[in-house]
Design brief:
405 residues; alpha/beta; TIM Barrel; three-stranded antiparallel sheet; 15 helices; 38% helix; globular
């Protein structure tokens, strides 16, 4: 028997121990008394009671069982991504909002035309791709709803299985639009509400300065009354001035018991070098500021998704992923547009088909990492170059300390 190499250990302020296993997603807490009965250097020196407890939670296991479990979930994951084209569709950078932290070039007049959609449809068809995951992005993609629905209808005609989601400000996401998107295979939604009404209306105004909080919240409430299967993530971009307590009450009253809804709290960041952001807050300070309130209100485990199981957070991190940009070219990042490698649709698909293969052998060095079962060596292409694994691990440890103590 061995200690799982996918255990994350965090010493608590009371000399206890938190253990999170990334392979099975289990979290346990040992009191100081039981922590003293645990010897992490030699299992045999630990008490039988502690060994049995850790074994029952897969934190002590055999190397054979651990490798078998890893191989199973790795195979399911890789089979899925290597048989699927992940296509992020950006019709335009145009938006009906004027958010101060937005990193996109809203002045750009580039937009996708019918021939751009037809070009990528033809490449998908000639490449014999049968599974396509579409992520609708912008700008505000719902400003171009008719073009999007036309593209998705044509894609369905090519005998392609469609799944996907949309990142939208939610202002135009009424019940009719929601139903149309679901009918086309778009069943995952991310909508941003930046705190309570006052905070949100300061940062997420319409172009003409109009308020948006009430319209978005009412759209979400109306959608929640439908019985369709979907997932809806409400994202709060938070800086040091954001107030979310009243919004969390709205969330609790309307969505807390609806398993289709989840909450993502995320600090505003300097996402690109050109952004001039003020009042930034770190993830660690975010944990400290809100976790006690979330626990006291018994709101679902927000951060479990955000900071532990949310390492695979980019739709463009896979070899089989690409973005159709508003200029009709193919790119590979939705944030760093200035440094974005851009190639023609035809050249991209020529390279793409050669890359649809198992990449596990190229990521052997990652298999030694405690985070491997959560990302399988994938991640933000921009971050990979900067080696952010240590930052991710520290964020997880900070969360565990704040939430479970």
């Amino acid at each position: 028997m061995i200690y799982s190499k996918y255990n994350i250990y965090v010493n608590t302020k009371s000399n206890g121990l938190l253990i999170y296993n990334t392979l099975y997603g289990r979290i346990i807490k040992l009191t100081e008394e039981y922590s003293k009965k645990l010897d992490l250097n030699h299992i045999g020196n630990s008490s039988k009671e502690v060994i049995d407890f850790l074994s029952s939670n897969k934190m002590i296991t055999s190397e054979e069982d651990e490798n078998e479990r890893l191989k199973l979930i790795e195979s399911k994951f890789l089979n899925k991504i290597n048989s699927t084209l992940f296509l992020t569709l950006i019709p335009s950078f145009k938006c009906n909002f004027n958010c101060p932290y937005c990193y996109e070039n809203r002045a750009s007049k580039d937009m996708l035309y019918d021939y751009d959609y037809d070009n990528i449809l033809n490449e998908i068809s000639s490449s014999n791709i049968k599974n396509v995951n579409i992520q609708l992005f912008g700008g505000e993609p719902l400003l171009f709803l008719d073009d999007i629905l036309s593209f998705l209808d044509k894609l369905k005609e090519k005998d392609v299985s469609i799944s996907g989601g949309i990142t939208t400000n939610g202002y135009l996401l009424n019940e009719e639009t929601f139903s149309k998107l679901l009918a086309c295979g778009i069943n995952s939604f991310q909508i941003t509400i930046d705190g309570n009404k006052e905070s949100h209306n300061k940062t997420r105004k319409l172009i003409n300065g109009g308020e948006t909080y009430s319209t978005i919240l009412n759209n979400l409430i109306n959608i929640s009354h439908k019985t369709n299967k979907c997932s809806i993530t409400i994202r709060c971009n938070i800086d040091s001035t954001t107030c979310i307590h009243n919004f969390l009450k709205d969330y609790e009253n309307n969505f807390k018991n609806d398993n289709r809804f989840s909450l993502l709290l995320y600090p505003v960041s300097k996402w690109t070098e050109s952004l001039n952001c003020e009042n930034l807050i770190s993830k660690k300070d975010l944990f400290k500021k809100y976790t006690k309130f979330l626990k006291s209100e018994q709101i679902k485990d927000v951060y479990l998704t955000t900071y532990i199981d949310g390492l695979l957070c980019c739709d463009l991190q896979f070899t089989t992923s690409l973005a159709l940009l508003p200029n009709g070219k193919i790119g590979f990042c939705t944030i760093d547009f200035n440094k974005n490698e851009q190639i023609s649709i035809k050249d991209c698909f020529s390279n793409l088909i050669n890359n649809i293969q198992n990449e596990a052998s190229q990521k052997n060095e990652c298999k030694k990492c405690v985070l491997y079962p959560k990302c399988f060596g994938y991640g933000c292409k921009k971050r990979d170059k900067l080696n952010h694994c240590d930052d991710l691990l520290n964020n997880i440890k900070s969360f565990l300390l704040e939430y479970f103590l």
